[in-house]
RNA sequence: GGGCGGAUAGUUCAGCGGUAGAACACCUGCUUUACACGCAGGGGGUCGUAGGUUCGAACCCUGCUUCGCCCACCA
C-alpha cells in the first residue's frame, strides 16, 4: 500500500508571498538549474539575450524570460540536459551615458576624471547596480544556471573579442579608414547605421544662387536647393545629372561658392536626381554621405567645417565657434543680404537622431574601423536558405534576407571609454598598425617601442555578436562548446534582428563554422491595454516587479504566456494579470478540495467503478498532456496556456469536481469513493507538472502538499498520455450530459426558481434506446446533483410532444419537461442530416475529381495533393458517422 | 519607393474552409459544506468593404478603405 504525506492545511486563499522566495531558494540550493554535460542525455540550450547591466527588468524582458523559462523547464522535464545561460551586457554607450549623467549631477564630466578614473567609476557603478536586474530575473523564477553567469566585459569574453578582432583583421575583414559616418555630437562618438532613428520633420529648403565664373554660358548663376546652408562654406563642387538637358552645357564650367569666395567646378554624376530640387546639387564631401562618395569618384577635396562637438571650426571663417543652428541662421541671413537667397520653401524630410540621446546625428568624416560584412552575410543567408536556422514565425526570414542581402559595412569603432578597447597599436615611428591578441611591446614592422594603443572601443554589439560561443569559453576548446553549441533556441524581439540576431549568425558561422542556434523565435512587442507603446513619459509603463509584488510571479507569467500570440503585439493591463491571479486561486482551491478528500493512503482506480465523468476527466487529462507538449514544442505557448486554463477551470473545476462530490461524500458506496479518490490523485498528479513550466512556484507548493513523491515537481518527468486512462468517445458522451444539465439549469433560471429550492421532479424526454437515452439514463443521479432536483426521470417523448423546453406545476411539486439531444423532432433531424450528408458527398466528389486528374496529381505540390486526399478520407469518415446516426434515428 | 502585419461582441483578442468563441465590462439570481480571487443564467456580432473561387467562406484569391510597423531615399 502506497501512502503519501499530505498537507491538508492550506490557507483558504492562495498567497504568493513567501512561497515564491522559499521555493526559489530551495531550487538554487539543490542545484536544480545547473546544466551538466551528460552524454546520456540530449542537450537543450538557450543563451539569454543579455540585458543592459544598468537596466531594470521591464515587461518586455519579463515576457522574453517567461517564454525561455517555459521552454527550459519543459525540456528539463522531458529529460534533456538543459543549459539556460544568463548574463548581462556592458552596453557601452548606454551605460556610459548613465554614469555620465550621475556625474553631471555632481558637476563632474568624464573629461575631468580622465579615462582611467572614469572607467573605474563605471565599474564601481556596475558593482553597485549590476546585480539589480539579475535579482529581478530571479524574482520572475528564471531557471538559469547562475554559476555560468557572464558579462560581456569580463575576462573570458574580452579574450574572445580580441581573438575575433585579430582574426577578422588578419583575414582582411576588418579595416580602418577615413569615412563619413553617423556621428552623435553629444555622445561625441560614431554610431552605426542601425543606431540612427529617423523621424519626419519640417525643415526649410533654401534656394541659393551660385554665380557662374564663365560669362559665356547664357545664365548668370545656377540655382542650388539645400537644407544645410551652413555647409555651403565646405562646398567643393556642383553636380548635375550627365543627361540633364537643362544643365548639360554647364558641365566643366565653374561657380563661386557664396560666403566663401572659392571657385569650384560643375561636374556630372549619376547620383543626381534631375527631378528633385533644382536638379543641381552642392557637393560637400565632409558633411554628407552621398557627397562623400561623389567626392571620392571625382577626387575632390574634403573640407570639414563642423567639428566633433557640432561646432563650426576654423575652416568656417566668420562662422567659427557657432553651433550648427547658429551658423545656419547666420548663413541664411548673410545670403539674404547678399541677394543670393532666391527663396525658401517648407519641406518635410526625415532627420536622423541618436538612438541613445535623441541628438540630431551629423554625417562626420573621421578615422573609423569597419567590418567588411558582405562575405559574412553571404554565409548567413545561406544558412537560413539551407534550413540550418529556422525563423519562427517564418515571415521574419524575409526581413532578415532583405537586410542581409543589402548589408553595408559595419562601423565598429566608438569614441567612448567604456567598452572593449580596440586591440590595435599604432607605431609612432613608422605608422604601422600592429593588431594582436596579447598586448605587444613593440611595432611588429620596425620593432620600435614607440607604439600607442588605439583609443577607440568597440561597438557593444560586437561583443554581443559572439555571445552564443564566447559565453561557453571560446576561443578555448571547452566541452561545453561541443555539447551545448549550437544552442537550440534564441528568443528575442524583432527590434534587434539586425543589431544582434543577424550578427550572431555571421559570427557563429565564421568562428564556430556552425550556426549559433537552430531556431530563432521572434516575439512581438508588449504594449499597454490600448496598444500604445509603453514609455515613462506617457506613464503607461507596467513594471513587472510591481506586478510580481501585487499578484505574484506566477500570475504575471501565466498572463504573459496566455496572451502571447504569434505575429501580433501583446496588449497588457493589470486587470488582465488579475484574471490570471484569480486562476492561481482557483487552482489552489481545487487542490485544497482534492486534498480534503484524499487520505494519506493512495487508492487504486478500479476500472469497473468508473462512471462517465471519471472517464471523461481521465481522458481529457491525457489529451491535455499530449496537446500541451505538442504546442510547447512548436513554441505556441499562448494556446498551451489558454488550453490549460480552460481545462482546469472548465473541465476539472466546473464539471468534474462538482460531479465527484456525491461519491466523495460516500453516497455511492466505499468502492466508488476509493476509485474517485484514485481519479483525483491521478488527475492532479498529471496536471500539476503540465502547469509547472508556466507557474512554477504554486505548482511546487501544491506538489509538496499532495506529497506525490517527496521530490521537486521541477524534477518530475513530463507526463505522457496514458492509454489505460484514455476512453474513446467519452468526451462526446459527456457533452450530451452537459447539454442536458445546461438546459435544465437554463429552465430554472428563466422560471426564476430560486437556486436553493429543490425541484421535486424533472422529466427528460429522450427516444427510447437512443444513445442519448443510454447516457442520460446512466447519469440521472448526477443530473439531480448538479441541478438540484429530487428525482429526474427519463421518459420517451409523448406523441403530442412538439418541441421546446417547458416548465410546469411550480407550486410544491415542480416538474420540468426537457427535450434533449437527438430526441426531439426526429424528422427535422433526419432532414438536416440528410442534407449534410449530401453536402459532404459533393465536397468529397469534387476533391476526388481533382485527384482523378493526372495533371493535378503530377503538378501540384505534394502537400496539396496530400491535403486533398485527407479531405476525401475525412469526408468519407464523416459520411459514415452521419449515416450511422441517420440509421439509428430512423429506427 | 520596397516589404510586413492588423481590421471579429462595449473593450482587448482567440478562431483561419463545415452550426460565430474567450476574458474583462454589462444585466438577473445566489453566503449551494474548495474557491464571492466564487457559482448559475443572460443580453450583445449581417466577422472593414466590393467582387471572385467553393456544395459551403470570418477563414482562400483580387481590388478598395483604414490603422500600425520595418527598410531605403530625402541635395
Characterize the structure shown:
With 891 residues, this protein is an alpha/beta fold. It has 27 helices and 29 strands. The strands form ten sheets. Strands 6-5-14-16 form a four-stranded antiparallel sheet. α18 (612-633) runs antiparallel to α19 (637-665), α18 (612-633) crosses α22 and α19 packs antiparallel against α20 (670-691). It is elongated. The two termini are 51 Å apart. The protein binds one RNA strand of 75 nucleotides through β8, β12, β13, α10 and α17.
Key words describing this protein structure:
single chain, RNA-binding, alpha/beta, 891 residues
Q: What secondary-structure arrangement, pairings included, does this model have?
A:
Elements (H helix, E strand, L loop, with lengths): L18 H11 L13 E5 L11 H19 L3 E5 L1 E2 L3 H14 L4 H4 L1 H26 L9 E2 L3 H16 L3 E11 L4 E3 L4 E16 L9 E6 L10 E4 L13 E3 L6 E6 L11 E4 L5 H10 L25 H15 L2 E14 L7 E10 L2 H12 L4 E3 L3 H10 L4 E2 L1 E2 L9 E4 L5 E3 L15 E3 L3 E2 L1 H5 L2 H4 L8 H6 L2 E7 L3 H15 L5 E7 L2 E2 L16 H8 L1 H11 L6 E2 L2 H23 L15 H22 L3 H29 L4 H22 L4 H11 L23 H21 L10 E5 L5 H7 L2 H8 L4 E4 L10 E3 L6 E5 L6 H27 L1 H6 L2 H29 L1
Parallel strand pairs: 1-2, 3-4, 9-11, 15-23, 22-23, 24-25, 26-27, 26-29
Antiparallel strand pairs: 5-6, 5-14, 7-8, 7-13, 9-12, 10-11, 14-16, 17-21, 18-19, 18-20, 28-29
The structure holds one RNA strand of 75 nucleotides.
